[in-house]
Amino acid sequence: MLDNDKYFISFASIDDISTNFINKLYKHFNGDIKRAWECDEYSLKEIEGLRKSSAQKFLKSRDKTDIDKVFNYIIENNINYLTIEDKNYPKLLKEINEPPLNLFYLGDLNRCNFGRCIAIVGSRNASGSSKKVLRNIINELKHTELCIVSGLALGADTEAHKCAIENNLSTIAVIGGGFNKLYPQQNKWLFDDIINKYGVVISESWPDFEPIAWRFPHRNRIVNGLSKGTLVIEAKLKSGAIITANMCLNEGRELMCIPGDILNPNTEGIYYLLKNGATMVTCASDILDVLNWDILTQKDDIKTKLKNFELNKYEQKIYDYIILNNPNFDDIMIKTSLNSDELLLHLTTLELKGLIKQVEGSRYTVI
């Protein structure tokens, strides 16, 4: 219900309260987000484990919040959102201990297969050798239905997103602050690429919230929560990657590690995890085996579909270009040298055959 959405988003707009606080209210009022928002001080005192200071901060901020103004800000700025009551809310994420009640996102959810997500995390100072191994593994997954989830940080995260894009895989970036406070700024190009072509960028934070330290562990639980398993490529014993790995184990998800140079301080955490039950990964098949996944490549799927159709040379050229690029209309027109009327005719034919579809941003993708 749209009215409920306004309350979820209004909760998200308050910087003085945690996800844990909102979840406690939501559960106490049996999933009635409107009652949770409108509760009084007496009701808050009845909730076990709720700190008095947090309750007072919430009441003070809530009374200053105009829910219609807050909601309209999100709509007017073309920011998409999901609430935990939405049918499109990722199933795996809903199963974690503290699921976010509201998520903001930019990009197209339809690009991502939420049933085939794997998280990749590691050091911001990941070595060249570990990046090379990761690149080789993701290369082996080229053109599959796998979706790579990471945190858009420098180092391992950046390499994971880049490799996904280069291998025509969808990717999800979960960031620690709001969209208007992107961190790190060096990855703005990657942020834009993901939302425009390759997946979605997700944040639990209101668009203007700063990416301060405590938000990153909160982000990491979402990275884990979206994924059936987490692959760690490098990590010190005391690091964010180890925290993420422990979250993975606590949620009963599969934990995997890429081994590395034992003299590298960044592998101390890796060997600690391997000694305590993590699965060693040296190739893509190791990941598929531990997750018990049979992966259909896009190429195999394409061959099966195309057996039912005869494409003329222009349709084939257009289709082949869309497979690799997810282009917009103008991109295809430049590539094929067709005029707009001719191109529109061929695109319409491919859509009617169920081979392509138009997605957010007026881009085309194969079905």
Explain the layout of strands and helices.
Elements: H1 2-12, H2 19-28, H3 33-38, H4 41-45, H5 52-62, H6 67-76, E1 80-83, H7 91-94, E2 102-107, E3 117-121, H8 128-139, E4 147-150, H9 156-166, E5 170-175, H10 188-198, E6 199-203, H11 215-225, E7 229-232, H12 240-250, E8 254-257, H13 268-275, E9 279-280, H14 284-291, H15 298-306, H16 313-325, H17 329-336, H18 340-352, E10 356-359, E11 363-366
Parallel strand pairs: 3-4, 3-7, 4-5, 5-6, 7-8, 8-9
Antiparallel strand pairs: 1-2, 2-6, 10-11
Helix pairs in contact: 1-6, 8-9, 11-12, 16-18
Query: Looking at the structure, what is the overall shape?
Result: globular
Report low-confidence residues grouped into runs of 5 or more: none
CATH class label of the largest domain: Alpha Beta
What radius of gyration results from the CA coordinates? Answer: 22 Å
How much helicity do the residues have?
40-55%
User: What summary fits the major beta sheet?
Assistant: 9 strands, mixed
- Number of extended strands: 11
Structural class call reads: alpha/beta
Q: What is the end-to-end distance?
A: 30 Å
Average per-residue pLDDT, rounded, comes to: 91
Return the string of H and E elements: HHHHHHEHEEHEHEHEHEHEHEHHHHHEE
